[in-house]
Amino acid sequence: MKTVFLCTPHKLGDLNHDLIARIKNCGFEVLCAATHSPQDKHFKEIFDTNVGLIDKSDILVAVLNNYGKDLTWEVGYAYGKKMPTLGLDFNALETDVMTYYSLNRIVKPEELEMALESFK
Q: What global pTM score does this model have?
């Protein structure tokens, strides 16, 4: 079974849990900092945990919804590793050049399941 790292801001709460369930229903294991990285640790430990989660994954799915520098770094890291990537466009900006063009494909949220089929 392939593993997806769901790259998403913690602040999206219920949306994150909905996306995790949808990805699991497609037959993938899901790792996500919002659920797998304790936030009560030292910042360096959080960083190391999140990098480890990406390293254990086969695919990165980025939630492009009010995102910031952490998501941008994680997308760039996956790009550097030549990991397959997918962006979910809630409010993606093409002018956010380094994030937008680091992703292999960007789809609308309702296209998630269909897009994941190509990664199986």
A: 0.95
Distant-in-sequence, close-in-space partners of 65: CB < 8 Å, separation ≥ 6: 8, 9, 12, 15, 88, 90, 91
Asked whether 60 and 7 are in contact (CB, 8 A), the reply is yes
Q: How far is it, in rounded angstroms, from Cα 66 to Cα 56?
A: 26
CB 62 within 8 A of CB 38: no
The confidence band for 47, taking pLDDT boundaries of 50, 70 and 90, is: very high
Q: How many residues are recorded in the chain? A: 120
Domain total for the chain? 1
CA dihedral 19, 24, 29, 34 (to 10 degrees): 30
- Asked if residue 6 lies in contact with residue 30, where contact means CB atoms within 8 angstroms, the answer is yes
CATH number, domain of 88, equals 3.40.50.450
Residue 67: exposure state from Cβ atoms within 10 A (0-12, 13-18, ≥19): buried
Boundaries of domain holding 45: 3-117
Q: Structure tokens of 116?
A: 């994941």
